[in-house]
Write a structure and sequence with these properties.
By secondary structure, the chain is α+β, with helices and mostly antiparallel strands. It is 39% helix and 23% strand. A ten-stranded antiparallel β-sheet has the order 1-2-3-4-5-10-9-8-7-6, covered by helices on one side.
């Protein structure tokens, strides 16, 4: 009976003192007293737990029937805890495997990309090596699809195939050669041009192949000119190559895009009236009407500056520009009056001109254009401002 009582749910809700009281009351009613024992044994008995008391009264009752719902709850809790730990361990293992697999794939992808990049860089170096063998004028190169910048070839089979700016660049090359070599070549036609560019709207470089005519002999000379725009919608252009085609100088030009220091000075400004009055006979020279007609390249400078600074205009009309006055600033000294403009290598041109806007409207404008020539490398630069 004692064993059945201890295994019942009622006994589990009692304290140790209450259980001891129940047992003593049961034994007293049965005529049995708790056996006398020594003080230590009695204290040990009275302070024992339920499980220890249960051992004093052995029974054949199944253990699972003693505290069935608590044992089952604890067993389930232990099982759930174990399963959680096992699932967590499995998830961590799977995550670690997935991470290692991902890192492995990323490493392989980086390796492939690096290999592809090195391969493309090698092909690009070989491509531009073939391009620069002809200084950019070759038209037989096969265009690759993997380079960030290309040299595109354009044939000028019809007069309308050649843009106006390309014709002006061809004239600039002839003017540069005539100024440095003392010749008088004139543009006959443009055969083709190669344009080096990266993205639309960025500065471009033009390699123009044209046919020039010598008025003295009437002979035709194939001519090559290169122009390099340093900014978009701004007059800042370098002319590096200006030569007859068959000169044996192919592949000898340095293709460094960095402009020399003397080409990087700030743009000139329009002089004040005080400056003109003080330095009129020292560094300023007013260009007379006959000289202006003989030196058509002054208008050529104006047209180049007008087109490069008005790229957004769909079809600018150069015939609407009329030069009113030209003043030249230079630190050089030319002795002969009729040769003074041709003798100036480094000079700044202050041009007053009118622009016909149509319907009887005329806009008075001013332009400041500076020409810089390096006699050692035979390069020329034009920069200035037409927004005055």
């Amino acid at each position: 009976m004692v064993a059945h009582f201890l295994s019942s749910p009622q006994a589990l809700s009692l304290t140790r003192k209450q259980v001891r009281g129940k047992i003593q009351s049961y034994l007293r009613n049965r005529g049995r007293e708790v056996p006398e024992a020594s003080e230590n044994v009695r204290n040990k008995y009275l302070k024992s737990s339920k499980s220890q008391v249960l051992k004093l009264f052995p029974t054949n009752v199944d253990v699972s029937r003693r505290i069935p719902w608590r044992l089952e709850k604890k067993r389930k809790a232990r099982l759930e805890k174990k399963m959680k730990k096992e699932n967590k361990r499995k998830k961590q293992a799977l995550a670690e495997c997935a991470f290692r697999e991902k890192r492995k794939k990323e490493k392989e992808e980086r390796k492939k990309k690096e290999h592809m990049r090195q391969h493309l860089d090698k092909l690009e170096v070989e491509y531009w090596g073939r391009v620069w063998k002809s200084d950019g004028f070759d038209d037989s190169l096969r265009l690759p699809i993997f380079v960030s910048r290309l040299m595109r070839v354009y044939k000028c089979e019809k007069p309308n195939d050649c843009p106006v700016i390309v014709r002006l660049y061809a004239k600039m090359g002839l003017h540069q050669y005539n100024m440095l070599q003392g010749t008088n070549f004139q543009l006959r036609r443009v055969e083709k041009y190669n344009r080096e560019s990266t993205l639309y709207g960025r500065p471009c470089s033009y390699y123009v192949t044209s046919v020039a005519e010598d008025p003295a002999t009437g002979s035709l000379v194939p001519f090559q000119t290169s122009s390099h725009e340093r900014s978009i919608n701004v007059l800042n252009i370098g002319f590096y190559i200006a030569r007859p085609q068959d000169t044996g100088e192919k592949g000898t030009i340095c293709h460094d895009r960095t402009a020399p220091g003397y080409f990087n000075s700030s743009a000139p400004e329009w002089p004040s009236e005080t400056d003109k009055n003080i330095f009129l006979y020292i560094i300023f020279t007013l260009v007379q009407e006959p000289e202006l007609k003989e030196n058509e390249w002054i208008r050529l400078y104006l047209e180049v500056g007008f087109l490069t600074t008005n790229r957004r205009t769909p079809a600018p009309e150069l015939s609407d520009l009329k030069i009113v006055e030209v003043m030249v600033e230079t630190k050089e000294n030319a002795q002969l009056s009729n040769e003074r403009l041709k003798g100036f290598k480094d000079a700044t041109f202050f041009i007053k001109f009118d622009q016909d806007l149509g319907e009887g409207q005329v806009r008075n404008r001013r332009a400041v254009i500076r020409r810089t020539v390096d006699l050692r490398s035979k390069r020329m630069s034009l920069d200035g401002d037409l927004s005055i």
